[in-house]
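We modelled the chain as a single entity of 560 amino acids. Its sequence is:
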Amino acid sequence: MSYLLDTLPQCPGIRLDDLVLTPTTVVALLVCTSSTAPCPRCGTTTDRIHSHYRRTVADLPCHGRILALRLFVRRFRCTNPACTQYIFCERLPQLLQTHARSTLRLTDAHLVIGFALGGEAGSRLAQHLDMPTSPDTLLRRVKNAPDEPAPPPRYVGIDDWAFRKGQRYGTVVVDLERGRVIDLLPDREAATVEKWLRDHPGVEVVSRDRAAAYSQGASAGAPEALQVADRWHLLKNLREALEGLLTRLEVDVADALQPSPSADSPATGMLEATPVVPEREPRPDVSEPKPPATSELVASDRKSVQQARRQQRAARHAEVRLLREQGLSLRQIARQAGLSLPTVRRYCRQEGCPNWKPGRRRRTGLDTFRDRIEQWIAAGGRNAAELFRQLQTQGCDAGYDAVRRFVSRRVGSMHRPGPRTAPRTPAPPPRPSARQLSFELLKRAEKREAEEQSRVERLRACPSFQEALGLAESFVALVRKQATYSFTDWLAEVEQSGCVELVGFAGGLRQDEAAVRAALTTPWSNGPVEGQVNRLKVIKRQMYGRAGLRLLRARVVNAA
């Protein structure tokens, strides 16, 4: 029995009278023994007892059992004639709060669970730990919890986060010195950021992205603070400029990445391995020419249609470029040419006519079963219906037409069954998009694959990209603090270059030059803020529709 007594709360003025054990609960009968009690309103100490009453509260579990405390407490009469409270109940501040139905230590345990898991998940865990409570009680305690005491922030980072993506946003404020979230703001307006900074004087550094609202709010709310632009966003803006350059000079990109024919290439080796079939001598008699096969007619018709569409697209592209050179606006060109506005904008951006079908094959649901299909073909299988039934038993959800087309590409068309007599020349690999190439250009050299490094070197060797890529690499070296020259020299070189995209990028840096210089010379960045935004998203999605600003702020700010 002594091991149970050690788990009971030890408070002066309370005596244990009895202990009742059941298979699931422990009930402790406690009696208050103090002879006097202070009035909660006027503070007058009195010993005049009015009556007694019984009060039951929950406590931390006791050796795998739910612990309930049955308190026998008293009501007292206040002896101060000027006090408005004539009768008051005895208070036990070291054990529980006024009107509470759980002890202070159980409330703290519920609070920790609520901070970590929220309402529903926290309630399930509390039930398993023999501390049952409702989800609403957990959320109410989390929302009412006071903020942890913290020193005044000196170095802060701010960034936006989405209540609802694309519609409503808030702002998260992080103490970069402690790595903790300080506050959540209801929007991302400059006035809100300004008010918060005025309410928290002493901020020395404000790390932010390049949004104009944060720049204006930081300048107005903390004019003496040093603003630091986030280096990740600087590289992101540079990558977008390179993507625009590669899109505009798509023809030069295609020429630079054109594979050079070599004797060791797979296509050449396959052509050399193709057996040469000798031509037959013509027959002496004259007969009617044999009509071409149906598959050949279909293939020729398809090629002619594709060629006609390409010619029509090239004519439209040339027309749009001509109208643009004549000074017409994009909307006027769209109305005159009968095209959509995004198409006109894309044609004006690209010097060469875009090819919407460069020959790349899309992924299908049969790629997972490719090895099994290859084994079936190698064993002599040719019936697509039979293969379809076999794949269904193996968990494949592809349709019969998809299976038939897959088999036809492997063994031949429906009019020419059986394997092809000569190996097929593989299609050249699809050219990477401008977006993919922009990422490869900014990637560290030691992290590039061999193929990526080859593409980067070819682009560097192209005269159209030599100057622009050199300037881009110089700025990356500045961001990574590996350059030996100054940011001023880089801006002067860019402004003298003929690259429109980099000139526009440099113009944006000029507007925020002080923050950019601070980013290139100081160690502060928004990296910790981005990590806290990810943590905020996880907490928000765990609570589904209950993640209001007050509750979300309490969990993000107070939870470790």
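As a brief sanity check on the tokenised model: Residues 261 and 268 are 8 Å apart (CA to CA). The radius of gyration is 38 Å.
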